[in-house]
Amino acid sequence: MLTATRPAKARNTTTAPSPIVATYGPAVGRLLTAPLFLLSGIAKLSDPAPFLAYIASVGLPFPTLALGIAILVELLGGALLVVGYKTRYVAAIIAGFTLATALVFHTNLADQTEFLFFFKNLAITGGLLHVVAFGGGPFSIDRR
């Protein structure tokens, strides 16, 4: 007589992060990521001309509007990322922005600098998707 056997339960082979990493890691990660966007937004706001020319050079319509959106995403998104307000939504918006930047501005993969910028943007997008998945952590406004 044939009998059905239950499949073996999958064992969890991962370990939980240490309490220190779980407590402080998300805030440190946000604080290390946000300055990239804040400083970039400040640079664009301080001297928009070269950025407008660069945006126009890739053929995007309405370079002024595109620059305004970039400044808004970088400054507001970076600041909200620092304090951890609406962290998952903000990280998703910045991730989309960063991925779009890679796909629009860093497509000449034969150029080593563009190649590195493209994959740097992909890596940043990946890190931001971790924030989307796991949230801002205990040291965020979201956790009040």
TrEMBL record:
Its main location: membrane. The chain crosses the membrane at residues 21-42, 62-82, 89-109, 115-141. Coiled coil: none annotated. It comes from the Bacteria. It is a multi-pass membrane protein. InterPro entries: DoxX, DoxX-like_oxidoreductase. It is found in: Cell membrane. One of its GO terms (cellular component) is plasma membrane. Keywords: Cell membrane, Membrane, Transmembrane, Transmembrane helix. It holds the Pfam family DoxX. The keyword Ribonucleoprotein does not apply. The keyword Ribonucleoprotein does not apply. Belongs to the DoxX family. This is DoxX family protein. It comes from Sphingomonas crocodyli.
